[in-house]
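Task: sequence design from structure.
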């Protein structure tokens, strides 16, 4: 199953990990990434701590836990390659599922942040 098909068809919860230039780590809930191609994913971000951390440290990790009885999912290791502030594009990318919080409904400035996939691993274990 392609990564695009996986995130389009599997329900679950995602957590994005970033850190600042000093190594202070932040974790935040994020919906599944938008798969651009086999090497690139994007996240819509507000200008909060995760986005701010990426200004000084381009590395991030995303953990997706499938809605399942077992511990199944994926870990994506990411490097930021670019971002854009394109509200019309971001509006077309909004998912049909409910937002994580009511704050995501507002019209605050949002960014589409693109990442190169450095590595994909299962949720548990050491296999790649």
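Answer:
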């Amino acid at each position: 199953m392609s990564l695009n098909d996986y995130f389009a068809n599997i329900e679950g919860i995602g957590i994005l990990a970033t850190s600042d230039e000093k190594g202070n780590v932040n974790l935040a809930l994020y919906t599944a990434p938008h798969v651009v191609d086999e090497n690139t994913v994007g996240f819509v971000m507000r200008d909060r701590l995760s986005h701010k951390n990426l200004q000084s440290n381009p590395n991030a990790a995303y953990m997706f836990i499938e809605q399942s009885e077992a511990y199944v999912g994926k870990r994506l290791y990411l490097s930021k390659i670019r971002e854009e502030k394109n509200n019309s594009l971001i509006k077309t990318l909004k998912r049909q599922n409910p937002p994580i919080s009511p704050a995501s409904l507002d019209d605050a400035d949002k960014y589409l942040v693109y990442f190169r996939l450095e590595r994909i691993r299962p949720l548990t274990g050491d296999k790649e």
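The chain has three helices and seven strands.
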